């Protein structure tokens, strides 16, 4: 009897503690919020205010996973995100029942022909095969999901030699030949962690026919890990090709140009999401990153918004020529289109001098970044579907389009968007965030904080433990090959045997009233408007 009594007393004490502790904690928060002077809502309504701030904090996740429909969400919709994940994980782009696109909205469409190309008529090189791993679903129920990965041999879907794109074919001692139209846009080590960079390097190397842009942060061993081809990007901070005083070093540049993996160099004049120059928080600048960039460890990096080495078309082109002469490799520039007069001045000088870059990367204002200011990301720089045709048309008007290749970037993460960019004038396409998603990015949008929950945009060792290189490298490879397959499917539908042959005539724009306009007609109307303004 005494034992039972003791048990009852003990149980009551435990229950009392369980009720008392939360009550005391609640009272503490109530008094604390009631007395604080920072937040009006918490001072007047401590309980409801806490609920409000909690809901506000988890709002982005609620919208992403529960409230946004499949075609909503920025910078990418749920559908676009899932398209990348499916391509990388399952190498699958199949859909059932119908498209989720809102066909009442305005947008571009690819003009299919009555007599498309057969698979046997496509100019595609499928040797050598690629050994990869693809996930296979065994069951997908509400509370359980079974799947396993299998080794597969897949076609690489290369361009044939006669359709390969060559950078610096007539200007360089060592031109860069590409049998694929899609590569990785600039992503620096430091903005991304070593696990992500390594997985990307190995996956791209596995797929072949592509390139990896280092980003302005310099060349790391992680970029080199997969032995993929490299485009070394040089930003205004001159990371990796500068001396300790921050000035350009020809000696350091020459050493980089002698590396076999580096196939070309790109001067980053601007970036779509951050025309201000680069920014990396000090906590992400480790000893290793500082050594690569030749900066102080632990100190926030704000690189200038333009090069000190040149400030006019003539001085820019002179610098490009010097880089090409020293390296013997293709030299390109990365621009954001805004001031059309300045752009025309550059193109006119290229025509007049007979000199210029081997390629121009046109980055749309909708492009991504590890960190920038809101006002720059939202407003500065034209989006890619406006900017790309302008550059293409201007080069044609001055008769030098055949002397320079155009690389387009800006949310071009699916085959249809890439095909439209090719038809608008691009020779090649850069992708950054699509590849980030392929290695695990969930669009948490905390890239600038070093707290990426999936270990992609962080140098935090603990967070990077979640990103398994040996698994994610296959997703990178599968995603890239899937994109190339999709491009050939669209080429066949348009009646051409290779995606390199997409032209303006292959796309049209439909407005909200259902009216259809060829791209040339839109461009000519825009040109007339510009002339009237002048």
TrEMBL record:
Keywords: Membrane, Transmembrane, Transmembrane helix. The keyword Protein biosynthesis does not apply. GO terms for biological process: glutamate biosynthetic process. The chain crosses the membrane at residues 7-31. The keyword Cell membrane does not apply. Belongs to the glutamate synthase family. It comes from the Bacteria. PANTHER family: ARCHAEAL-TYPE GLUTAMATE SYNTHASE [NADPH]. Pfam families: Glu_synthase. Residues 122-496 form the Glutamate synthase domain. This is Glutamate synthase domain-containing protein 2. One of its GO terms (molecular function) is glutamate synthase activity. Gene3D superfamilies: Aldolase class I.
């Amino acid at each position: 009897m005494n034992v039972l009594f003791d048990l009852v007393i003990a149980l009551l004490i435990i229950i009392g503690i369980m009720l008392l502790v939360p009550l005391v904690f609640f009272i503490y928060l109530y008094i604390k919020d009631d007395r604080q002077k920072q937040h009006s809502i918490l001072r007047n309504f401590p309980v409801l205010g806490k609920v409000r701030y909690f809901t506000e904090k988890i709002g982005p996740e609620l919208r992403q996973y529960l409230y946004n429909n499949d075609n909503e969400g920025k910078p990418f919709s749920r559908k676009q995100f899932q398209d990348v994940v499916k391509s990388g994980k399952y190498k699958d782009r199949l859909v059932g029942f119908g498209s989720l696109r809102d066909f009442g909205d305005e947008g571009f469409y690819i003009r299919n022909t009555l007599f498309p190309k057969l698979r046997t008529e496509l100019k595609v090189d499928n040797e050598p095969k690629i050994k990869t791993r693809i996930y296979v679903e065994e069951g997908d129920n509400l509370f359980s999901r079974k799947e396993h990965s299998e080794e597969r041999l897949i076609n690489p879907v290369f361009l044939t030699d006669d359709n390969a794109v060559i950078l610096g074919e007539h200007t360089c001692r060592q031109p860069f030949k590409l049998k694929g139209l899609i590569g990785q846009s600039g992503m620096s080590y430091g903005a991304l962690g070593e696990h992500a960079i390594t997985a990307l390097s190995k996956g791209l190397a596995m797929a072949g026919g592509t390139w990896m842009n280092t980003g302005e942060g310099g060349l790391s061993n992680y970029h080199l890990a997969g032995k993929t081809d490299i485009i070394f990007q040089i930003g205004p901070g001159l990371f990796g090709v500068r001396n300790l005083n921050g000035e350009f070093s020809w000696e350091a540049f020459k050493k980089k140009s002698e590396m076999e993996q580096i196939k070309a160099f790109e001067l980053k004049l601007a970036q779509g999401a951050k025309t201000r120059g680069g920014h990396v928080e000090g906590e992400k600048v480790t000893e290793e990153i500082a050594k690569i960039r030749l900066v102080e460890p632990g100190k926030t990096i704000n690189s200038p918004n333009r090069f000190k080495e040149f400030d006019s078309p003539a001085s820019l082109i002179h610098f490009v020529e010097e880089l090409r002469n020293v390296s013997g490799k293709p030299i390109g520039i990365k621009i954001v289109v805004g001031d059309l007069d300045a752009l025309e001045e550059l193109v006119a000088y290229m025509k007049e001098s007979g000199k210029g870059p081997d390629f121009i990367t046109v980055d749309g204002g909708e492009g991504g970044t590890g960190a920038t200011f809101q006002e720059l990301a939202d407003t500065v720089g034209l989006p890619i579907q406006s900017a790309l045709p302008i550059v293409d048309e201007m080069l044609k008007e001055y008769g030098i389009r055949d002397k320079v290749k155009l690389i387009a970037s800006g949310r071009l993460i699916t085959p249809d968007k890439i095909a439209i960019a090719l038809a608008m004038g691009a020779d090649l396409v850069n992708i950054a965030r699509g590849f980030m998603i392929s290695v695990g990015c969930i669009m948490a949008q905390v890239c600038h904080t070093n707290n990426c929950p999936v270990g992609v945009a962080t140098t935090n060792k603990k967070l990077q433990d979640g990103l398994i290189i040996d698994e994610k490298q296959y997703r990178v490879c599968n995603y890239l090959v899937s994109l190339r397959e999709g491009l050939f499917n669209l080429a066949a539908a348009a009646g051409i045997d290779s995606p390199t042959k997409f032209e303006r005539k292959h796309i049209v724009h439909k407005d909200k009233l259902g009216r259809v306009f060829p791209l040339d007609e839109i461009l000519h109307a825009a040109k007339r408007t510009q002339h009237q303004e002048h």
